[in-house]
Write a structure and sequence with these properties.
single chain, mainly alpha, 13 helices, 3% strand, disordered N terminus
């Protein structure tokens, strides 16, 4: 795929603001030119904001765009790393994520997540559980920023999927996360991820983490199902 075509795929979402688009295109150009190589850590948000003359939130949104397409990956407490362009080049996968409705997404999560948590508890190493706890700590430090909380929530679920030790499950769940990050998710975040709701979610994820730490498979599966039901109720609420 030509670089120009790749950029058009990455930035087809018209909800992306003009300044965010410019920053994302600038970072993509650096990645394509290998100024930032695969597995290399990007400069910090603060550094990029100063270098590009934009607000830090603008850089964060641009990184969201790149992460949504698999060009970079955030690691809690470590920064953003270039992952290459394999996902970005997979237009079919991007199309699937873009065409997935909120209800379709919830149905798929209901199929995957209970079994993912079951396998993860069996296979996760103590170090992986410790790393999951570090992400949870970062989630618990968020009080008002819905975007930050949603990003960390995605990373929490991604780490559980990785913990299954099954690369196909991990790849499937990456597609689920891509679907979660469509425009409707941002609207839902603004509407429902109030500071009080964030506190409720923090308590829920703390309980889930405790069941994982205890290797309590049945409790973890049942609690995962309850969380999905709660999200389904929010989704079905009318204006």
């Amino acid at each position: 795929m030509r670089n120009q075509d790749l950029a058009s795929v990455l930035f087809a979402d018209q909800s992306v603001g003009a300044t965010v688009r410019v920053v994302a295109e600038t970072l993509l150009a650096r990645i394509l030119s290998q100024e930032y190589a695969v597995d290399e850590r990007l400069p910090s948000e603060r550094t990029l904001a100063g270098e590009l003359g934009v607000a830090r939130n603008t850089v964060r949104e641009a990184l969201d765009v790149l992460e949504n397409q698999g060009v970079i990956r955030r690691r809690a407490g470590s920064g953003s790393f270039v992952t290459g362009l394999t996902q970005a080049e997979d237009i079919d996968a991007s199309d699937v994520a873009a065409e997935t409705s909120p209800l379709d997404l919830q149905v798929m999560r209901g199929i995957l997540e209970p079994e993912i948590i079951r396998l993860a508890i069996v296979n996760m190493s103590p170090r992986e559980i410790e790393a999951l706890g570090e992400v949870l700590s970062s989630m618990e430090a968020v009080s008002t920023d819905a975007g930050d909380f949603a990003r960390l929530e995605d990373e929490f679920h991604r780490m559980i999927a990785r913990g299954t030790g099954n690369p196909l499950i991990t790849a499937c769940y990456d597609l689920v996360i891509a679907a979660r990050r469509q425009a409707f998710r941002a609207a839902l975040n603004r509407r429902y991820l109030t500071p009080r709701r964030i506190q409720d979610c923090q308590r829920h994820y703390n309980t889930l983490f405790n069941t994982i730490t205890a290797r309590d498979i049945e409790s973890a599966v049942e609690f995962t199902k309850l969380l999905l039901i709660e999200e389904q109720k929010l989704l079905m609420q009318e204006d």
